Structure formats: structure tokens, C-alpha cells
Automatic annotation (TrEMBL):
This is F-box domain-containing protein. InterPro entries: F-box-like_dom_sf, F-box_dom. It comes from the Eukaryota. The lineage of its organism: Eukaryota, Fungi, Dikarya, Basidiomycota, Agaricomycotina. Pfam families: F-box-like. Residues 23-78 form the F-box domain.
Length: 286
């Protein structure tokens, strides 16, 4: 027993005399990864960028490490407020946005990117060709695309451009999350700007994603819809799709199609289902 105690004392004494490695003495690349974990970048769909900015205020070293680390520049949340007096305001704002995107995402190196654009209330801005071209043809590293308040016409234009660009190979090969949130729009009125999931042209909202984003995992169309989304998912390669969310009036849910053709879905969440859901339930009994 005495021998064991003496050995324990020697080990304790030796450990106290060993130099302690200070946190800020770690190599910058290791320190950057630790600070990255502190913001829980993988805990949800979006990194907590506000928490990252708070860490920047701790000391100049942390600020330098965070802002020079590519991970910080992989995510951008931008809100469009107000407008410009220019007659071609849509072209002006689109050009400014693309220039800002390029300056920001260039610092991310070759990492996957996440973009969240809030178009604001009202019809203040409709993106033009340069906006769509940047998202589709000039950058293929998107992991997440999220648009709030985006009108139906620009959205369908974006997906149409993506579908055309994906004839040879997918333009968004790394896209995992595609989210449309038009919660500010009043449902059931002309101001709702409903999204057509298959508008008669080549593609349609859901079908164009089939070509453009074959690795999609989370698709959310939280907006007034003109048709049921599930009928257009029949031929969708759903091996990677685990979450599909919809919201809006006029939504007809075919539960048999969901059950038999979407087995990988962990979360299929249509909000406010109409009475027709009971028709689908009755259909299952036959």
C-alpha cells in the first residue's frame, strides 16, 4: 500500500511540474476547429453565426483565427430591406447581391456553402438573370439554399435555369437542403403568389430538383401551393430524401402514395391538411 501511495505522489508531483499547454498556444488550425465546435455547426441546418461573432469579441487572437478560417465564410444570411430609386432596381440589386456573394464566399475556399436570402415584405425586389446564373452556373458548392419571401415567378425561373443547366450533370450536386418560406404571404388571396409544383413547362418546382439536386435530403415548400406535391414525387429519386414539408391551401394528400413511394422519409409534414385527407384514408381501404 505504501509503495502504491509513493508512486501516486511521484506521478502527481511530476504532472504539476509539467508545463500546461495554454489554449491560445495551440496551433491556429486546431484552435479554429475547437472554436468551430463551440458554435455547434453541425447541430442543426444552420451554423450559429451570432455565437461565432460573440467569440470574436473574447480576444484579438480568437477574432483573427475565426475570420481567417474558411468555415466562417461558408454561411451567409442576408436580408433585403427597402429599395433603390434606380429605374432598373431589380438589375441593380441583383448585381450588388452577386458581387457581395462573390466577395464573401471566395474566402470559404472549396468548402460547401449555405445561403439564406430574406427578400423582405412586399414586392420590393425580383432577382434577375445575373442572380440566377450565379446560383446555378457560377457556383456548384451549395449545401443549403433557403429563400424567404421569394415570389413564385423568380422561383420558377431559378428552378428552370437549374433544370436546363443540369441536362449533362447536376448543377447542385452537393445540395442537401432546399427551403422556400413565404410565410408573410396571405394565403387564399391573389397576393399569395402560389407556387406551382409542375407548371406545365419542363421541370416544375419538384421535378427540376430531381435533375438539379439528386442528393437532396430536406425539401421544404412552406408557401401557398396550387397542387399536391406528392403526385410529383412519384418518379423522384428519394433514396436521399428524408424530410419533405409543405404548407398551403388546395393541398390534396394521397397517403397511399406517401406510404408506398416514399419509404425513406423520416419526416413528411404537411401543415393544416384539408378534408381531402379523409378521402385518401378511405381510398386505402379498397
Amino acid at each position: 500500500m505504501n509503495l502504491v501511495l509513493s508512486r501516486s505522489r511521484r506521478v502527481a508531483t511530476k504532472s504539476k511540474s509539467a508545463p500546461l499547454i495554454q489554449f491560445n498556444d495551440l496551433p491556429p488550425e486546431i484552435l479554429a476547429q475547437i472554436l468551430d465546435f463551440a458554435t455547434d455547426p453541425d447541430s442543426g441546418t444552420f451554423p450559429n453565426q451570432m455565437r461565432t461573432l460573440e467569440l470574436c469579441t473574447v480576444c484579438s487572437l480568437w477574432r483573427s483565427v475565426i475570420l481567417t478560417h474558411p468555415r466562417f465564410w461558408t454561411y451567409l444570411h442576408i436580408s433585403i430591406r427597402g429599395t433603390t430609386r434606380a429605374t432598373d432596381r431589380n438589375s441593380v440589386i441583383s448585381a450588388r447581391l452577386v458581387a457581395h456573394f462573390e466577395r464573401w464566399f471566395t474566402r470559404a475556399g472549396d468548402l460547401h456553402l449555405e445561403l439564406y436570402v430574406d427578400f423582405g415584405e412586399g414586392r420590393l425586389f425580383e432577382p434577375t438573370e445575373i442572380f440566377h446564373e450565379y446560383l446555378v452556373r457560377r457556383n456548384s458548392r451549395w449545401r443549403l439554399l433557403r429563400f424567404e419571401g421569394m415570389l413564385s415567378a423568380p422561383l420558377e425561373t431559378l428552378l428552370g435555369v437549374a433544370s436546363q443547366a443540369s441536362k449533362q450533370q447536376p448543377c447542385w450536386p452537393n445540395l442537401r437542403h432546399f427551403i422556400i418560406e413565404n410565410s408573410r404571404m396571405s394565403r387564399g388571396t391573389a397576393s399569395g403568389y402560389p407556387i406551382s409544383l409542375n407548371n406545365g413547362t419542363e421541370g416544375g418546382a419538384v421535378n427540376s430538383l430531381q435533375q438539379s439536386a439528386p442528393m437532396l435530403q430536406n425539401c421544404a415548400l412552406v408557401s401557398p401551393l396550387t397542387q399536391s406535391p406528392f403526385s410529383y414525387l412519384l418518379h423522384y429519386p428519394v433514396a436521399s430524401l428524408t424530410s419533405f414539408q409543405t404548407d398551403g391551401l388546395g393541398l390534396y394528400i394521397n397517403l397511399r402514395l406517401v406510404i408506398h413511394h416514399l419509404p425513406p422519409l423520416h419526416n413528411s409534414e404537411p401543415e393544416e391538411p384539408p378534408y381531402s385527407v379523409f378521402d385518401a384514408l378511405e381510398g386505402r381501404r379498397t
